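Quick question, first post here. What does this chain look like in 3D?
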Amino acid sequence: MFDIAFIFLFFILFAAGLFLLNIFTSIWAYRDAIQKGNSKEFALIVLFGTLFFPVIGLIIYLFIRNS
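> Answer (accepted):
Ran it through. Tokens below.
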């Protein structure tokens, strides 16, 4: 019984960590887009793209951020 509770707790903590990582990287991408001189609309698209598509959105943003 203890083993199942430990595994469940580990899974919950891991999922919460991934969620927080997604939030932090999305905020970073938004702020980075603003600092690079892009418009607020572009920064919001970056924010929503990285929130809803975390891995793909961040990879695409890293490729287009210097253009």
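The helical segments are 2-35, 40-52, 54-64.
The radius of gyration is 16 Å.
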